[in-house]
């Protein structure tokens, strides 16, 4: 085979590639589809706001609008046990339970945040040091990282009020001395 034959083979391969690319470009021009500005499918838990401060302000406003008595009335212990299964990947809730990725949540309602000695809390959680009341827990469970900036808890949160109320009731029941409901 001489060099002229090899040049014809290479030229035909290049021409074929150019034709395929050209047809693709022409088809894109003929059948142009404008992309929508807003996503048709909104993923729950992702905020499309431009700054984290706006998110925390929205979260605080949502918390203020909810009456804790009304919220807890929506809750159900059985439902709370089901929803809490999401939490068991990182937390245990047993009287003699060990800490996992997150601390043991036995008796968490009424306990001071960051108070378990044998767990390494984030600096933000240690500095927070408030008592976990029903209201505090509700606010925290909406979006933990927005409520306490710098927490290690990488959980998106519980958006549904019934889920939060049920989990709070369930966690309150898992204590040596459950707190009376408001």
Percentage beta strand: under 5%
Low-pLDDT windows of residues: 50-59
Query: Roughly how many Å apart are the termini?
Result: 93 Å
CATH architecture grouping of the domain at 52-173: Orthogonal Bundle
What is the structural class?
Answer: mainly alpha
Based on CA inertia axes, which overall geometry fits?
A: elongated
> Mean pLDDT, rounded to whole units?
84
Write the CATH homologous superfamily of the domain at 52-173: Cytochrome c-like domain
Please identify the top-level CATH class of the domain at 52-173: Mainly Alpha
Per the CATH scheme, the topology name of the domain at 52-173 is: Cytochrome Bc1 Complex, Chain D, domain 2
**What's the helix count?**
8
Order of helices and strands: HHHHHHHH
Please describe the biggest sheet, giving its number of strands, its sense, and whether it closes into a barrel: none
Number of strands: 0
Radius of gyration: 28 Å
User: Helicity level, as a percent range?
Assistant: 40-55%
General description of the model:
This protein has 182 residues and is mainly alpha-helical. It has a domain of 122 residues: Cytochrome c-like domain (Cytochrome Bc1 Complex, Chain D, domain 2). The protein contains eight helices and no strands. Helix 4 packs across helix 8. The chain is elongated and about 95 Å long.
Short description:
This protein has 182 residues and is mainly alpha-helical. Helix content is 49%, strand content 0%.
Chain-wise SSE layout:
Elements: H1 3-30, H2 52-65, H3 68-74, H4 77-84, H5 123-128, H6 134-142, H7 144-147, H8 161-173
Helix pairs in contact: 3-8, 4-8
């Amino acid at each position: 085979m001489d060099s002229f034959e090899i040049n014809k083979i290479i030229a035909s391969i290049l021409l074929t590639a150019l034709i395929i690319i050209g047809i693709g470009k022409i088809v894109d021009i003929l059948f142009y589809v404008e992309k929508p500005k807003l996503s048709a499918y909104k993923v729950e838990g992702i905020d499309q706001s431009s700054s984290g401060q706006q998110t925390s302000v929205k979260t605080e406003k949502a918390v203020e609008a909810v009456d804790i008595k009304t919220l807890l009335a929506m809750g159900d212990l059985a439902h709370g046990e089901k929803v809490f299964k999401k939490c068991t990947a990182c937390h245990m809730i047993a009287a003699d339970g060990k800490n996992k990725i997150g601390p043991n949540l036995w008796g968490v309602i009424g306990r001071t945040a960051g108070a378990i000695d044998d767990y390494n809390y984030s600096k933000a959680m240690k500095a927070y040091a408030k008592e976990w009341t029903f209201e505090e827990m509700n606010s925290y469970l909406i979006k933990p990282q927005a409520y306490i900036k710098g927490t290690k808890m990488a959980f998106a949160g519980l958006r549904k009020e019934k889920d939060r109320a049920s989990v709070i009731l369930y966690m309150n029941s898992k204590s040596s001395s459950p707190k009376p409901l408001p």
